């Protein structure tokens, strides 16, 4: 899935893709793909603090996106739309999580990952005085937290790397665009 997410980001115009890695395996996987690695300052700790540290490390002069790595249906068109935001944009997952948090230049919103994070991100952005857009229609909203999620995504199309992996396990899964 990471390969499909990275491919969508790059095809959508994101030149600077960084991976927030909590352990050596994640850091090695990112580095093997030529991605910059931001190490979690407190591995095993709070994801919120790690995301806040990651966002602080990249600055705020351009649109920044926090994108989950388990979004095998994310498309370049979704990414291009999110790169053009002029307000905080939250792509919620079906279970109320946050698949993508897009921040326009100058916007600072503390990370609120965990159960109900999409609503928490909206509340945090509004509390900070930012206008907010929800994008539940984005293909990127469909995450794969469990095998059932991946099966459902595969039925509607996923990126080629995820499709190849699924084909090795259960042939005849459609890829995006076919």
Overall 3D shape: globular
Helix-strand topology string: HEHEHEHEEHEHH
What name does the CATH topology carry? Spore Coat Polysaccharide Biosynthesis Protein SpsA, Chain A
Average of per-residue pLDDT values: 88
Number of helical segments? 7
Name the CATH superfamily assignment: Spore Coat Polysaccharide Biosynthesis Protein SpsA, Chain A
* Gyration radius, in Å: 16 Å
Main sheet strand line-up: 3-5-4-6
Number of domains: 1
| CATH-scheme architecture | Alpha-Beta Complex
Strand content range: 5-15%
Give the N-terminus to C-terminus distance in angstroms. 18 Å
Low-confidence stretches: none
- Say how many strands there are: 6
Instruction: Summarize the biggest pleated sheet.
Output: 4 strands, mixed
**Classification by helices and strands:** alpha/beta
Percentage of helical residues?
25-40%
CATH class: Alpha Beta
